[in-house]
Amino acid sequence: AQKVTQAQTEISVVEKEDVTLDCVYETRDTTYYLFWYKQPPSGELVFLIRRNSFDEQNEISGRYSWNFQKSTSSFNFTITASQVVDSAVYFCALPSNTGKLIFGQGTTLQVKP
Amino acid sequence: NAGVTQTPKFQVLKTGQSMTLQCAQDMNHNSMYWYRQDPGMGLRLIYYSASEGTTDKGEVPNGYNVSRLNKREFSLRLESAAPSQTSVYFCASSEWGRNQPQHFGDGTRLSIL
């Protein structure tokens, strides 16, 4: 069975702190993809990044970075120097072979000024 | 570029009433999806349409019907609304394939009294 677990329900940090959001996944597939989405307080779901199982290199985009490790089935997301605008719910997702996205429960990040 | 447009954004229904949620995408995507988001449950797939002319059940299809009207439009119908269907509904679209990210509309907040 495929499953995504985001064990951190809520995280609260002070602005400029670094924060890491954890994602652990389960799949029997040898080839797969993983996504991260952001849901700000306004409610829309915004696609952030896609990674495939072939590429375990860390990826950095501005203040965001992603650490993908097949050995531990983890795809963690780090925000460096967090800002209030980063406050949102963040979802990790694993596409199934039927095309649907299997979402984790989400991690609510609150960045306080 | 509008992306995925959902109407209405908010709706209040009485138990037993019927309603159709509309979704249209302008990205020429083949696949479209309907999810519901409930507190503590994450996002769950209701129905999806891999391509124009096809529809399939997701995790929680009971009480819903869908119509893929054309490549752009995918509607979700509640024939006899129940309080358990109070939720936020998201429509999404993508190219077909597990590596393709889904792009979401802004959601419809539906309350059933």
Write the topology of this structure.
The complex is a heterodimer of chains A (113) and B (113).
Chain A: E1 3-5, E2 10-14, E3 19-21, E4 24-26, E5 33-39, E6 46-52, E7 59-61, E8 64-69, E9 74-79, E10 88-95, E11 101-103, E12 107-112
Parallel strand pairs in A: 2-12
Antiparallel strand pairs in A: 1-4, 3-9, 5-6, 5-10, 7-8, 8-9, 10-11, 10-12
Chain B: E1 4-7, E2 10-13, E3 19-25, E4 31-38, E5 42-49, E6 56-57, E7 64-68, E8 74-78, E9 87-94, E10 103-104, E11 108-112
Parallel strand pairs in B: 2-11
Antiparallel strand pairs in B: 1-3, 3-8, 4-5, 4-9, 5-6, 7-8, 9-10, 9-11
Q: Could you please describe the fold and organization of this structure?
A:
With 113 residues, chain A is mainly beta. Chain A is 0% helix and 53% strand. Chain A has no helices and 12 strands. Chain A has strands spanning 3-5, 10-14, 19-21, 24-26, 33-39, 46-52, 59-61, 64-69, 74-79, 88-95, 101-103, 107-112. Chain A is globular and about 45 Å long. Chain B is built from no helices and 11 strands. In chain B, strands 2, 4, 5, 6, 9, 10 and 11 form a 7-stranded mixed beta sheet that branches. A 4-stranded antiparallel beta sheet of chain B has the order 1-3-8-7, with no helix packed on it. Chains A and B meet through β5 and β6 of A and β5, β9 and β10 of B.
Question: Of all protein chain pairs, which has the greatest interface, and how many residues does each chain bring to it?
Answer: A-B, 24 and 29 residues
The count of strands of chain B amounts to 11
What kind of sheet is the major sheet of chain A?
6 strands, mixed
Report the end-to-end length of chain A measured between terminal Cα atoms.
41 Å
Q: What coarse outline of chain B follows from CA principal-axis ratios?
A: globular
Number of helices of chain A: 0
Beta-strand residue fraction of chain A: over 45%
* Secondary-structure content class of chain A: mainly beta
